[in-house]
Amino acid sequence: xxxxAAPSQPFTTLLIPAMALIVHKYGGTSMGSIxxxxxxxxxxxxxxxxxxxxxxxxxxxxxxxxxxxxLAYAVSVQLEPRELDMIAATGEQISIGxxxxxxxxxxxxxxxxxxWQVPIKTDSTFTKARIIEIDCARVQxxxxxxxxxxxxxxxxxxxxxxxxxxxxxxSDTSALALAAAFAAHECLIYTDVDGVYxxxxxxxxxxRRLECITCExxxxxxSLGSKVLHTRSVEFAGKYRVKTRVLSSLTDPAMPxxxxxxxxxxxxxxxxxxxxxxxxSGIAHQRDExxxxxxxxxxxxxxxxxxxxxxxxxxxxxxxxxxxxxxxGRTDFTFTVARSDYARALDILNASVKTxxxxxxxxxxxxxxxxxxxxxxxxxxxxxxxxxxxxxAEEGINIQMISTxxxxxxxxxxxxxxxxxxxALHKAFALERG
Length: 434
Ligand code: ADP
Ligand code: ASP
Ligand code: MG
Known about the structure:
- By secondary structure, the protein is of the alpha/beta class.
- The protein has two domains: 21-270, Carbamate kinase (3-Layer(aba) Sandwich), CATH 3.40.1160.10; 282-433, VC0802-like (2-Layer Sandwich).
- It has helices at 34-49, 64-75, 81-88, 90-105, 137-144, 171-181, 215-223, 231-240, 257-262, 303-313, 342-357, 384-394, 418-428, and strands at 21-26, 53-58, 110-113, 120-122, 131-134, 148-151, 155-157, 163-165, 186-191, 212-214, 244-248, 265-268, 282-298, 318-323, 330-338, 361-374, 401-405, 408-414.
- It has an eight-stranded mixed β-sheet with strand order 3-6-2-1-9-11-12-10, with helices on both faces. Strands 14-15-13-16-18-17 form a six-stranded antiparallel β-sheet.
- The longest helix has 16 residues, at 34-49.
- The protein is globular.
- Mean pLDDT is 93; it is low at 1-13.
- The structure holds adenosine-5'-diphosphate, aspartic acid and magnesium ion (MG).
- Adenosine-5'-diphosphate is lined by residues 27-30, 59, 169, 191-193, 196-197, 199-202, 226-228, 282.
């Protein structure tokens, strides 16, 4: 990530070769009504008429995936992940059909594909599946015939022909994986903000849009909660060096291509050595975290594995982990999980805590949030942690856990102070517009 653009940037090259394969991804808000879908179609048609091969990956219409999941929860509390995916995947299926029809209305040949029809092959981790392979043959024929191909985001198919989904926000990952598999010239992620900002612009009014962000920083920002891009999509972009831009779908769809290619935020693969690097370049937050602590755990070899093994086995991701100094052979072991996994993680531990692990007690707090400062410039600067801790202290915000890497510092705090912390840190690291 870097500060605002310098006048002549090597990254904002506007040249797109003729007949380039371009992938567009449109999020839920961008697909949120028939009028918006018509606008998406107008934008895609413009690119197609400019001579490019077009692949479009839409999400479900805004609110649709939540609605579908609520229906499932209303029917059953014992949710079977396979059936959840069967239900959740239908949102995107509606979107691809509607968008294809809207394109045809404009006289553009278009063909829709559900994930299994491509096929986009995944593993069988329902609700969090990972893409293993994409078969390009069938879709390539349509592209070669000049059709716009509209592929459902968020979904795939496993080795036993079960429909799978890639995790919430997973349509970005579908788009980047497809762009990588088809060696697309560029992947454009159209969303409801006009790029990647120094913090979520819905929380920080003064957040600044970045012209460019390094893939490494975007990966940290995404994995630390900046949901503007799904984490695994950034991994695909980095691994396959896919040229990726985040931009707004809410602009005039007739805007000239050149202007569109200058807008938004471009992800880059190298640090720009010619510009002064910001020490901290963004503040990320993850609201829905939960903390679980096992008190009085016997401090013996293998205890961490005994605690976290069953959690991993249940496909629950663990984030921060802290083990205290032991006192009289016993220690406290604390970790965080996504709030949606909190009840399941507690159940697993309560089932094994007294018997196998021998801890005194399991306690938890499902209302905590993580706030992080990110920046590749941190590598060469000291004092970031102390600025962060001082700022939070001045606001009276208690830090519950801390974790660091070369380019980020994260703290776990009470959820009710999350927005205050993001704003205060954004200011403390001088990230505001100005
Ligand atoms: P889509 O439905 O298009 O995939 P998302 O809601 O998943 O859109 O992601 C876009 C949202 O990400 C924005 O509306 C914004 O609130 C949020 N966001 C969080 N952090 C950032 C950031 N650093 N820069 C831009 N947007 C951010
Ligand atoms: N529709 C899915 C969701 O709401 C996937 C996405 O929007 O990227 O999570
Ligand atoms: Mg998204």
